Amino acid sequence: MFANLRNLTSKRALSVSRATFQGQKASPSGVVSSCPAGTPLNLQIKKSGKEPVALEDHEYPEWLWTVLDSRAQLKKLQEDPLKLRKKQLRSANRNKIKQNNFLSEI
């Protein structure tokens, strides 16, 4: 039952995304930007600077499309064991700090 529901929702999501982004060219990896080219991004930091504008999907670097993909990030971490260990240590330290803070409130 859940498998059918999952297939139905994924098919629905794909059909909606195709209809939404029809006419926009996909990036080489198949991901489509949510901002059409030429849209002001409201990210102006300096007063004297110009307002940044969204570019075409093919103008962005390829790595940008994998930043939010957890599978791609995990694969990248597995290729570099030092970064993976560093991330594991940070997570363990964060959990230990949370536990110590909780115990200090008791």
From TrEMBL:
InterPro entries: Ribosomal_mL54. GO terms for molecular function: structural constituent of ribosome. The keyword Thylakoid does not apply. It holds the Pfam family Ribosomal_L37. It is found in: Mitochondrion. It comes from the Eukaryota. Belongs to the mitochondrion-specific ribosomal protein mL54 family. GO terms for cellular component: mitochondrial large ribosomal subunit. This is Large ribosomal subunit protein mL54. Keywords: Mitochondrion, Ribonucleoprotein, Ribosomal protein, Transit peptide.
